[in-house]
Amino acid sequence: MMALRPILVSKYNPSYSSQTLITCHREPMIQYLKEMPRKKLVHLNTNRRVGVIATMASLLLMKEEKIAHGLDLRMVAPEQTLEEAENGVKNHAKALVQVKDLIESKSWSEAQKELRRSSSLLKQDIYTIIQGKPASQRPQLRKLYSNLFNNVTKLDYAARDKDASSVWQCYENIILALNDILPKL
Q1: Do the beta carbons of residue 128 and residue 80 sit within 8 Å?
Q2: Closest Cα to residue 120, out of 80, 82, 76, 81?
Q3: What is the number of other CB atoms lying within 10 angstroms of the CB of residue 152?
Q4: Of residues 185, 175, 184, the one with CA closest to residue 97
């Protein structure tokens, strides 16, 4: 591979004022490697090998753990059909409502985990159904959808802060939002 590299014309190198220097990048590298002591060359290759082996070993030895400590941001399950979403909505809505038992017992971290699990599945189902509706109905359904899941997020934060009054207020809002959106789906 040849590279053309013009030499800067300045007061420091006047002898090259109108010439262009043509250099080959491969030759100097080969000459450099030939001139390099064998010991250094082996050391460079060893460092690369150790780095690659360490990287591959860490990737291969990593365990897959299923920990649900955050909201799942997927909107639509790629393999989910409209019929599957319609069948799953009621079950996932019931699971969301059943968080009440955990709230009553003040099991805040368990309530958060169950809330996140059930709400993410419900979110996917409702979004899939909204996408299957006529364009004229979507804005109203999206507004109800947004209201429902904003309250879910607020409940999650309130449970994290162990604020019982806010948790109950958000839970009431979730029940109202579910009663608004479910019949329209």
Answers
A1: yes
A2: 76
A3: 24
A4: 175
DSSP letter at 77?
A: -
Sign of CA dihedral 84, 97, 110, 147: positive
DSSP state of 18: T
Q: Which residue has the tokens 């959808």?
A: 145
Element at 3 (helix H, strand E): strand 2-6
Per-residue pLDDT of the chain (185 residues; tens, 9 = 90+): 444 444 444 444 445 444 444 455 545 555 555 555 665 555 556 666 777 777 777 666 765 544 445 555 555 556 778 888 888 899 999 999 999 999 999 999 999 999 999 999 899 999 999 988 999 999 999 999 999 999 999 999 999 999 999 999 999 999 999 999 999 98
Please check whether residue 111 is in contact with residue 147, taking contact to mean a CB–CB distance below 8 angstroms.
no
Distance CA 149, CA 116 (A): 11
CA pair distance 165, 121, nearest whole angstrom: 26
pTM recorded for the entire structure: 0.57
Do residues 105 and 98 make contact, with C-beta atoms less than 8 angstroms apart?
no
